[in-house]
UniProtKB/TrEMBL annotation, chain B:
Residues 4-295 form the Dihydroorotate dehydrogenase catalytic domain. The active site is at 139 (nucleophile). Its EC number is 1.3.-.-. The gene is pyrD. This is Dihydroorotate dehydrogenase.
């Protein structure tokens, strides 16, 4: 159990939840959260948005019942969270671009903090959110509302690209980077019951066979991911 | 003597709490969270003679108090399990139960034979081996028909007979609640020499995505587990314990010490915890202590005292 420090509404559907404590993690890793007893049944996987020595922060979009309950937490409320789980973005070398689409920007704040030489691209379909926190931390932030943020990226100038966002965006990025030298890594979302590799609920089939998104992922090299298969779900 | 100590098919259990197949993987990830000597035993993910990649599409879907799954028996295959996972599991201080699945009699037989040979080899090498075999004749997610065996007594009999002849491990047969006549199948298992039965596996269930106008699951149906099924599972365990003399391992929706006592009072020799692991990943760390506390409150000094009392 941990205690909520603050819960701020950033837009009608996005909130930032800060929880007190000395937590661990690497960019792209996630925690399993719940603030309820037995219903809904499963905990919710949420990426590390920010981490300091005294708090962990999550950036969350309202989706269904679980995120609705998390959105209602206020300072002093109790949350159960386990993690950090999974493998995040690999240690970067060379020029790195962090590309987020919509809610996919969530893991990139902590990534930008840990990878200070990266360039950050944030794309939104509607009202932008949380951009100021990226700008406060990092000199090089490009953001855009509407259209596709991918058009703003000179894909040839990066050695590594770390992306998180809607599947169609990541599939398109994969297509566009196929001919470049950039290595693309994507963070994939699958439904998860356990987060630690014991339920086989989150399997994704990548080039090298079946992998669990919760332990081997959620970050995978894009060339291994079968986007068509994932988009079909 | 510890008031929780139990026995199952000749195997001594520290307590009656076992972790159910498919909800505990191969146990080692959980051993990093809490010591598994808190448990009576762990059941492996269902294993088949050859590896299975499992079902495509959505594999999990929550319901009020329940969970539907369509994993499709994804597993590394018995040879891989025997050469790597089993070795790691034998370092854990708890009983090991291998869950055997299959989609044909030949596949079950082959799987049982490989397990038998490896366990014998380990023993002659002086190494620890598995303690029990749980034969799953009821996995509802395998299209080729794993579940069919759970459905009619005739088909089930053949599988149980073949596996019984092949294995020297104490044998539990895991039953499907979807079977037409659960009690008859349990009686058949006893006749064929099973050392116990375990029940229930998941209930066949369905969810529809109204936007896509399709089933949520590619295979159409999925298996329902969790607290939602507990009252039905309890009734089935009660019926079966009255019909057979071999021990019955009860499960289905257990999510508290008091649920465990209900299954024991219905006649179960031991219980398995499945979906509750996903509601509380630390469940196994405290359930045994909670059960002991509850027994004290209720003035129960041993499980034997209340087993089958209802
Ligand atoms: C590794 C990982 C990291 C994530 N990080 C974030 C984040 O930082 N911020 C954020 O807002 N969201 C994140 N998500 C998505 C988030 O987990 C879902 O939006 C959330 O589980 C929805 O729960 P719900 O009860 O509100 O919605 P419901 O639709 O009611 O949920 C029903 C079931 O589906 C599951 N589910 C629904 N959507 C998703 C999804 N996209 N991914 C996985 N499971 C889903 C739920 O967990 C639940 O079991 C992440 C997902 C994963 C897998
Ligand atoms: C995700 C998941 C995977 C499962 N896999 C198996 C399996 O491989 N073999 C098996 O015999 N039972 C399997 N089961 C069934 C459980 O072992 C148990 O019988 C069932 O879930 C009912 O118990 P519960 O309500 O406590 O979960 C699985 C259940 C779940 C939820
Ligand atoms: S969420 Fe259970 S194996 Fe990945």
């Amino acid at each position: 159990m941990a205690t909520v420090l603050s819960n701020e509404r950033l837009t009608a559907s996005v909130f930032r939840l800060a929880i007190e404590g000395s937590f661990h993690g690497e960019p792209g890793q996630f925690y399993m959260l719940r603030s309820w007893d037995k219903s809904p049944l499963l905990s919710r996987p949420i990426s590390i948005h920010d981490l300091t020595s005294t708090a962990i922060t999550f950036l969350i979009r309202l989706h269904g019942e679980g995120t609705r309950l998390l959105s209602r937490l206020t300072s002093g409320d109790q949350v159960t969270l386990y993690g950090p789980y999974g493998n995040g973005f690999p240690k970067p070398g060379g020029n790195v671009a962090l590309v987020g689409g919509g809610m996919g920007i969530a893991p990139l704040l902590f990534s930008a903090k840990r990878f200070p030489f990266s360039k950050v691209f944030l794309g939104f379909s509607g009202e932008p959110f949380a951009v100021a926190s990226y700008q406060a931390l990092h000199g090089d932030v490009v953001f855009q509302s509407g259209g596709t943020i991918l058009d703003a990226i000179d894909l040839n100038s990066f050695d590594k690209i770390y992306a998180c966002g809607p599947l169609p965006m990541m599939a398109e990025l994969r297509r566009r980077t196929a001919e470049t030298a950039a290595q693309l890594y994507v963070s994939i979302e699958k439904r998860m019951a356990c987060g630690i590799g014991i339920c086989n609920g989150c399997t994704i089939n990548v080039g090298t066979g079946n992998h669990k998104a919760c332990t081997v992922g959620p970050v995978f090299p894009a060339e291994e991911v079968d986007f068509d298969e994932l988009l079909e779900l | 003597m510890n008031c929780l100590s139990s026995e199952l098919a000749g195997v001594k259990l520290r307590n009656p709490i076992l972790m159910a197949s498919g909800t505990f993987g191969f146990a080692t990830p959980v051993a990093k969270l809490y010591p598994l000597d808190k448990l009576g035993g762990v059941v492996t993910k269902g294993l088949t003679a050859t590896p299975r990649s499992g079902n495509k599409g959505t594999r999990l879907c929550e319901t009020p108090s329940g969970l539907m799954n369509s994993i499709g028996l994804e597993n590394p295959g018995i040879p891989r399990f025997l050469s790597s996972e089993l070795d790691e599991m034998t370092r854990l201080d708890t009983n090991i139960i291998i869950n055997l699945g299959g989609s044909s009699i030949q596949e079950y037989e082959k799987g049982a034979a490989m397990i038998e040979e490896a366990c014998k080899q380990r023993k002659s090498d002086g190494k620890r081996s598995a303690d029990l075999l749980e034969l799953n004749i009821s996995c509802p997610n395998v299209k080729e028909g794993g579940m069919l065996f759970g459905l009619t007594a005739g088909q089930a009999r053949e599988v149980v007979r073949v596996v019984r002849q092949t294995t020297s491990l104490p044998l539990l047969v895991k039953l499907s609640p979807n079977a037409q006549d659960l009690v008859r199948i349990a009686e058949m298992c006893e006749t064929e020499g099973a050392d116990g039965v375990s029940l229930v596996n998941t209930f066949q269930a369905m969810a529809i995505d109204i936007h896509a106008r399709k089933s949520v699951f590619r295979h159409g149906y999925a298996g329902l587990s969790g607290p939602a099924i507990k009252p039905i599972a309890l009734r089935m365990v009660h019926q079966v314990t009255k019909a057979v003399t071999i021990p019955v391992v009860g499960m289905g929706g257990i999510s508290s010490a008091s649920d465990i006592l209900e299954f024991i009072m219905a006649g179960a020799a031991a219980v398995q915890i499945g979906t509750y692991n996903f509601m509380n990943i630390m469940a196994g760390a405290s359930l045994a202590d909670e059960l002991q506390t509850l027994m004290k409150q209720e003035g129960i000094s041993s499980l034997q005292e209340v087993r089958g009392i209802v």
